[in-house]
Write a structure and sequence with these properties.
single chain; 336 residues; alpha/beta; Nucleotidyltransferase, domain 5; 5-stranded mixed beta sheet; 11 helices
């Protein structure tokens, strides 16, 4: 079965084609990062209008790269939640129109499920290695998921306030770095000493939840009091290290509590090299298998949506064309 995926939840217009749930035939992403950099963040109305401009060219490029025609598609998958509502509606409207015109099934996909299934694109044999633990860490979400089967998973921990990616972006702004902030902080931190400016770590009792608001406040306070005396690279390194340590130690506790030895880390922040280094060291010590997708699959992309949609179409009936679109929606559990 060949599935075309569409992703427009934020500021990337993406179309990707996946065969059989794991073979990526194309994965085209049109980023708006340069467009929004002048504003220091994503402007929803601007993002929606840019999606309208890019949607058809991106889909045509995905088809051309895959060497396919519209009539060779067997199904469609589209992100319908959560995200910027106007941006989501562009992708959902395109998917519904195609489903009607081509008379093929379409299925809505929760954005976080897309990130989860990016790990199956990186390692297709994961489908034979349940149960697994997944840390989804992105700009808007930080969650630990236990997955026992394609249709059986549950939330073990989530952030109580900021997501890790949000903390990186807000930290970048405090440091005077351009948008998008996460990669800028990582690049600057690579030149600094993480022990020069220690930042606080927050742990919420016996839970597997996260909190990043404290370290963000600590950064703001330090910068205000420091008056430019400390190298920015050292500040960035200390800030990044605090976030990395909180993510790694909390996932480590999840491994110890569940005894699960197959671990996935996905989402945009998973592309951070320091986080990858820390996760590899921790999982090797615990004797775990670690799967982190290639950076092109960590950030928002449509191949992961197509993969999630492929698995959903194997287990559920096609959605009616009246399916909804929501800006805010928790990850629904016990279902694909």
């Amino acid at each position: 079965m060949i599935v075309l995926g569409i992703e427009t939840s934020c500021d990337e217009t993406s179309a990707g084609i996946v065969r059989g749930g794991f073979q990526v035939l194309s994965n085209v992403v049109a980023s708006q990062a340069n467009l929004h950099a002048r504003y220091g963040g994503v402007v929803p109305e601007v993002a929606s209008r840019k999606h309208l401009e890019c949607m058809l060219p991106v889909m045509l490029e995905a088809l051309e790269t895959a060497g396919l025609t519209w009539r060779e598609l067997d199904g469609l998958a589209v992100t319908n939640r959560p995200g910027l509502l106007g941006a989501l509606l562009v992708g959902v409207s395109a998917a519904k129109a195609l489903a009607y015109a081509l008379n093929i099934p379409v299925t809505p996909v929760h954005h976080l499920k897309g990130h989860l299934y990016s790990t199956f694109l990186a390692a297709p044999d994961l489908t034979d290695q349940f149960p697994l633990l997944a840390l989804i860490v992105s700009g808007g979400h930080t969650q630990i998921i236990r997955m026992d089967h394609h249709c059986d998973y549950r939330l073990l921990g989530t952030t109580r306030d900021d997501a890790a990616g949000e903390a990186f972006d807000k930290g970048a702004r405090l440091l005077g770095l351009p948008y998008p902030g996460g990669p800028e902080v990582a690049a600057l931190a690579s030149q600094g000493d993480p022990s020069a400016v220690p930042m606080p770590r927050s742990y919420l009792g016996d839970t597997l939840d996260f909190s990043f608001s404290g370290v963000k406040t600590a950064l703001r306070t330090f910068i205000s009091r420091d008056k430019g005396q400390t190298r920015l690279a050292d500040i960035a390194a200390g800030y990044q290290e605090a976030i990395v340590v909180m993510l790694t130690r909390t996932l480590h506790r999840a491994i110890q509590q569940t005894g699960i030895k197959t671990v996935c880390v996905c989402g945009g922040v998973a592309a951070n090299s320091r986080l990858q280094e820390a996760m590899k060291a921790m999982t090797e010590k615990e004797g775990c298998r670690l799967v982190i997708p290639d950076s092109r699959l960590c950030t928002d992309n449509a191949a992961m949506i197509a993969a999630a949609g492929w698995y959903r179409l194997q287990h559920t009936a096609p959605a009616p064309l009246s399916f909804d679109t929501l800006a805010v929606s928790p990850l629904a559990l016990a279902t694909i």
